[in-house]
């Protein structure tokens, strides 16, 4: 019998996962942990070449503070992905602060949909 060669898994389609945070927090809720687990599993299911984690903040607090907060949120999510087996070398992290609001609001508004980190998984 001829030996069978195993082809690598096909690349996964690009997909985005969204993790939400409490106000002024980088703590991962159980719901956030569940989303991160799904994202990690998805990244590992195919040849995910790039995982881009982008942190966001709402408009409460100063713009400069929110850049730092969004960076910390993105780093927390990236660390959680690595802890679940995603290669740290495939992950890039970015914080956008108050830019790119999911739900546009006036300055100073606590908007839950804007307190988030997105996980974009892109195939090779």
Number of helices: 2
SSE pattern, N- to C-terminal:
EHEHEE
- The level of helicity is 25-40%
Unreliably modeled segments = none
Whole-number average pLDDT?
92
Q: Would you kindly provide a written description of the structure presented here, covering whatever features stand out?
A:
The protein has about 120 residues and is α+β, with helices and mostly antiparallel strands. About 30% of the residues lie in helices and about 20% in strands. It is built from two helices and four strands, in the order E-H-E-H-E-E. It has helices at about 30-45, 65-85; strands at about 15-20, 50-55, 90-95, 115-124. The chain has a four-stranded mixed beta sheet. Strand 2, helix 2 (about 65-85) and strand 3 form a beta-alpha-beta unit. Helix 1 crosses helix 2. The longest helix has 21 residues, at about 65-85. The model has no long low-confidence stretch (mean pLDDT about 90).
SSE layout and pairing:
Blueprint: E1 15-20, H1 30-45, E2 48-55, H2 63-83, E3 91-95, E4 116-123
Parallel strand pairs: 2-3
Antiparallel strand pairs: 1-4, 2-4
Helix pairs in contact: 1-2
């Amino acid at each position: 019998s001829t030996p069978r060669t195993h082809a690598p898994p096909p690349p996964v389609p690009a997909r985005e996962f969204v993790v939400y945070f409490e106000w002024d927090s980088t703590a991962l809720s159980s719901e956030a942990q569940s989303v991160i687990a799904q994202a990690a599993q998805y990244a590992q299911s195919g040849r995910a070449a790039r995982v881009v984690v982008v942190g966001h903040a709402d408009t409460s607090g100063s713009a400069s503070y929110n850049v730092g907060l969004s960076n910390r949120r993105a780093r927390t999510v990236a660390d959680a992905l690595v802890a679940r087996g995603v290669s740290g070398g495939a992950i890039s992290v970015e914080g956008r602060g108050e830019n790119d609001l999911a739900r546009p609001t006036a300055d100073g508004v606590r908007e839950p949909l804007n307190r988030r980190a997105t996980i974009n998984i892109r195939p090779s």
